[in-house]
């Protein structure tokens, strides 16, 4: 059994049987980051028990696709260059829209919970949210 795992990890005297170089590391890092986004999304969905796409999903998607694009350009592989050439655009756009949405939020004057700008009352404590976005001063 130990021999089996040793053979799996050190195949032909190479780690996982791969001819490692800086470019292979870039490609595998891209693969790992790109795959991790599914784990992050799945975890968030299981935790909330509803389909959720957390902001980390878009960060992992953006970073993973750029790493894989870099690797595919290095390999001059037209199939993978085409696959990743424009994939990063919707990921970046989703991050921009998320940031715009976050910037439009304001803190509740009572419990400090961040609430969407369109909300008139705090979802946590029910306090009226100041329409100007400034904190109300109590006397
Ligand atoms: Zn509140």
Short description:
By secondary structure, this protein is mostly helical. The protein has two domains: 2-103, no CATH class; 106-139.
How would you describe what is shown here?
By secondary structure, the chain is mostly helical. It contains 5 helices and 4 strands, in the order αββααααββ. The protein folds into 2 domains: 2-103, no CATH class; 106-139. Helices cover 58% and strands 6% of the residues. The strands form 2 sheets. Strands 1-2 form a two-stranded antiparallel sheet. The chain has a two-stranded antiparallel sheet with strand order 3-4. The chain starts with a helix and ends in a 24-residue tail after the last strand. It binds zinc ion (ZN). The site of zinc ion has 8 residues, from loops.
List the helices and strands and how they pair.
Blueprint: H1 2-9, E1 10-11, E2 14-15, H2 22-48, H3 55-75, H4 78-85, H5 88-103, E3 106-107, E4 114-115
Antiparallel strand pairs: 1-2, 3-4
Helix pairs in contact: 2-3, 3-4, 3-5
Bound molecules: zinc ion.
Zinc ion binds at residues 108, 110-111, 113, 122, 124-125, 127.
Beta percentage is 5-15%
Q: Could you tell me how far the N terminus lies from the C terminus, measured between alpha carbons in angstroms?
A: 74 Å
| SSE ordering | HEEHHHHEE
| Share of helical residues | 55-70%
* Class from secondary-structure proportions: mainly alpha
Bound molecules: zinc ion
Uncertain runs are none
Q: What is the C-alpha radius of gyration, as a whole number of Å?
A: 23 Å
What is the number of E strands? 4
Total helical elements? 5
Question: What profile does the largest beta sheet have?
Answer: 2 strands, antiparallel
How many domains?
Answer: 2
Tertiary shape? elongated
Strand order of the main beta sheet, please? 1-2
- The pLDDT mean sits at 89
